[in-house]
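Give me structure tokens for this 144-residue protein.
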Amino acid sequence: MNIRIINQSDHPLPHYETSASAGMDLRANLDAPVTLAPMERTLIKTGLFIELPLGVEAQVRPRSGLALKKGITVLNAPGTIDADYRGEIGIILINLSQENFTIDHGTRIAQLVIAKHEQISWELTESLSVSERGSGGFGSTGLK
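Here you go.
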């Protein structure tokens, strides 16, 4: 699948690091470093603009190493970029650690996954079919 992209940053285009990678790293496009205090959130721009085909979304997800080692994550994970959005890709980051974290120009801050999706039509009904789980809620299938 080919995706049209405008790159207004001085970074290379996002790319897959391995042949089996699902996501591509996104980098901060900053004029000056941004420091996030504990529990602070901010929008970090990437300098990237994309044109997705209908039936495709781009999902913005946290980078696992950044989340584990530094407590930095994507606040609305996964963030969704719809096929009709043409603005700059921005990443909402939050610092869940107890220490300040500085984001520099070029820091890899999130990953982008391209995924197909469908739109549905609702079918109003008075009942649903029976399933093995039924109406069991959170944790109803047990721990093991």
